[in-house]
């Protein structure tokens, strides 16, 4: 399923279908000038994460009449949200997005010099990359490795049950990329596809993979592969220089565009102007 606009994962029908399989209460809200807005019941409210996503010109006035109560906006729209009766709960986060409509040479030119040097190093390393359709039995080791790194690094990702539910509703759209040295996996990545966008969802590597800069080669390979398939954007996820500075530097080094989201907002009765 290819959407008419480049929807983030959190607004795509595949994501909605996966959440439904997990028993979550989801609904789409119509907003004039925007793609249907996916909402999920959270904190006793219906939450729209990374929405609305507008068709062309943004119709901010449509927010006033929209049946939306809580929004984690996809882009800064403070004045429109305030005019529609929303008040800010959390400040803007930032995401990194890699443009896949440019050429491979242009993407390499956009990389930070140190990042590009690490890529050249990885391209000379004795690595074999294998791109595979996700299978729970085959790739359970990658999920276990991800859980281990979450404990060590003290962060929490989306539950792995969501990956399995996503694979059920979109079997071909959960892809795994593994870097091998000889027969030993030293790094892995998992991507969720929602054309024309691909989302980098899990990344793991061991000490040997870090020494060979395996992830530099892998993310470049993935970008080239998805671009060849007609994808327009690779979403690398949040950029947090405070709690995950190393990962933030990695994402920024790819040459990805780092842009602000719009923050989290709650609509209060009687506050619309």
Describe this structure in words.
With 273 residues, this protein is α+β, with helices and mostly antiparallel strands. The protein has helices at 13-21, 62-65, 78-83, 104-110, 113-124, 140-153, 160-169, 207-211, 214-228, 245-253, and strands at 26-29, 37-42, 45-49, 70-72, 86-90, 94-99, 128-133, 174-181, 184-194, 197-205, 233-238, 257-260, 264-267. The protein is built from 10 helices and 13 strands. Strand 8 and strand 9 (184-194) form a beta hairpin. 33% of the residues lie in helices and 28% in strands. The protein has 2 domains: 9-92 and 261-267, no CATH class; 95-260, Aminopeptidase (3-Layer(aba) Sandwich).
Count of the separate structural domains: 2
Order of helices and strands: HEEEHEHEEHHEHHEEEHHEHEE
Per CATH, which architecture of the largest domain?
Answer: 3-Layer(aba) Sandwich
| Largest pleated sheet | 7 strands, mixed
What is the number of beta strands?
Answer: 13
CATH superfamily assignment of the largest domain? Answer: Gcn5-related N-acetyltransferase (GNAT)
**Which sequence of strands runs across the widest sheet?**
7-8-9-10-11-6-12
Per DSSP, the total helix count is 10
Averaging pLDDT over every residue, what do you get? Answer: 93
Task: Give the overall shape, derived from the CA principal axes.
Answer: globular
Write down the CATH topology of the largest domain.
Answer: Aminopeptidase
């Amino acid at each position: 399923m290819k959407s008419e606009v480049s929807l983030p994962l959190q607004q795509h029908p595949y994501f909605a279908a996966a959440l439904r399989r997990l028993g979550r209460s989801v609904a789409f809200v119509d907003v004039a000038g925007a793609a249907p807005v996916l909402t999920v019941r959270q904190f006793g409210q219906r939450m729209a994460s990374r929405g609305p996503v507008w068709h062309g010109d943004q119709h901010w006035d449509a927010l006033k009449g929209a049946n939306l109560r809580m929004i984690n906006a996809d882009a800064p729209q403070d004045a429109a949200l305030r005019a529609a009766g929303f008040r800010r709960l959390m400040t803007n986060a930032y995401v990194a997005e890699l443009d896949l409509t440019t050429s491979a040479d242009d993407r390499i030119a956009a990389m930070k010099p140190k990042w590009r040097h690490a890529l050249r190093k990885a391209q000379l390393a004795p690595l074999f990359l294998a791109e595979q359709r996700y299978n729970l039995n085959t790739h359970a080791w990658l999920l276990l490795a991800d859980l281990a790194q979450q404990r060590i690094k003290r962060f929490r990702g989306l539950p792995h049950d969501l990956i399995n539910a996503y694979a059920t509703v979109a079997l071909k759209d959960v892809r795994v990329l593994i870097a091998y040295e000889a027969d030993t996996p030293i790094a892995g990545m998992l991507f969720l596809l929602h054309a024309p966008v691909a989302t980098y969802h899990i990344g793991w590597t061991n000490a040997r993979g870090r020494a060979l800069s395996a992830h530099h080669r892998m993310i470049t390979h993935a970008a080239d592969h998805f671009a060849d398939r007609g994808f327009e954007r690779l979403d690398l996820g949040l950029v947090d220089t405070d709690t995950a500075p190393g990962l933030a530097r990695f994402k920024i080094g790819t040459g990805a565009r780092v842009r602000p989201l719009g923050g989290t907002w709650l609509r209060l009765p009687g506050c619309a102007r």
